[in-house]
Design a protein that fits this description.
This protein has 399 residues and is an alpha/beta fold. It has 2 domains: 79-295, P-loop containing nucleotide triphosphate hydrolases (Rossmann fold); 303-395, Elongation Factor Tu (Ef-tu), domain 3 (Beta Barrel). It is built from 10 helices and 19 strands. It has helices spanning 6-21, 32-43, 55-68, 90-98, 121-128, 156-165, 181-192, 218-223, 227-246, 277-291, and strands spanning 71-75, 79-84, 115-120, 143-148, 168-174, 197-202, 251-253, 264-268, 297-298, 303-312, 316-325, 327-329, 333-338, 341-346, 349-352, 366-368, 370-372, 375-380, 394-395. It has a 7-stranded mixed beta sheet with strand order 3-4-2-5-6-8-7, with helices on both faces. A 5-stranded antiparallel beta sheet has the order 10-11-18-15-16. The protein has a 3-stranded antiparallel beta sheet with strand order 14-13-19, with no helix packed on it. Strand 5, helix 7 and strand 6 (197-202) form a beta-alpha-beta unit. The chain is elongated. Residues 8-23 have a biased composition (Basic and acidic residues). Residues 75-292 form the Tr-type G domain. One of its GO terms (molecular function) is GTPase activity.
Length: 399
Amino acid sequence: IPTVSSSEFEKTEKIMIKSDQHSSDISPNDAKFETDICEQIVNLQIKPKPLISDPVLRIESLKKQNVETDSHGVLRSPIICVLGHVDTGKTKVLDKLRNTHVQDGEAGGITQQIGVTNVPFYAIKESTKNIPNMSDFDFKITGLSIIDTPGHFSFRNLRSLGSSLCDMAILIVDIMHAIEPQTEESIKLLLNKKTPFVVALNKIDLIVGWKSIPGKGIEETLELQSVRTKQHFDDLFRKTFTKFAELGLNLALYFQKKSHKLYIPAVPTSALTGDGIGDLIGFICRYSQDYLTKRLAVSKNLEATVMEVKVIPGLGPTIDVILVNGCLNKGARIIVPGIDGPIVSQIRALLTPQPLKEMRVKGIYIHHESMSVSQGVKIAGPNLDAAIAGFPLFVAQYD
């Protein structure tokens, strides 16, 4: 069937309507009008678009068409990766945001897998309601997808995978210890991948005389501390600043509003009291909308990466996938790299955890017919137990 443009279709439609309007006046023996109609249609020179035989070129052509239809009005949820040294409080910071206790289920309190938390819009609004300049902020993002990665030395490959997937990162630094070995490794990963990041100076509740002030932003909370407490904070910050400077990086408190091209923004936080958590979320939202709009434009191109492979009782072989762009539908045929070659499977179930719960936490899943953009999703299907984490997922196309 020939492919026609909208203007060509309109011309053809007008000719056919004209033919229909005059049909009663045409004599059975006089086909001149119909001949004129045919000539006019032929003169439109409607030609079918040539089929691109090379599959690689055909995929690139489809991607180019999809990019032209990208939406820059509504942004997808940014994928945020949480990195840092072991025991700096990465998971506890997320627990504070979710009001859950994921870390209690970890072996020795150490994160052993990459967990994905889908943070809905209402949770963002609630977290940032008391933060200066955020009450009337025009949110264009619909949520946050946060990846919690291991900080232990033995999990360096998982940290590398997490940093490869994210649009932005939170680097958790224990303000009492400054930069530690895995902190430095995480910084190098982020710099190599040119991933923007914000530093969360965690455990400020351990500062001498620290007093938590609920309902206040971190800048105001710092101002209301005693002279002794502020002096201790300044000493610790200078120590951390010096360590970053030794790596060739400048650090500045985020509310000082220094150039993001010259300074790495830092937000003081406490996973124990919740101080600074709203500031951290608010900064991520504002930065995403100010600097990442092109990257966060919703695209039809499928971008999905396998993060973990599990066999779950009642579901069978499953893969945890971070869906960056595009759409996945129940029943679709998917292709993932496997130990013995490509695996062709069919999506039997598309599952997500309850809002503000992690995919790795056992519980009741929500079943979906379709999933799209910036979601952590669990896929159940045959033969997926041999899939390899860290590689992209594809949907089989029949056209």
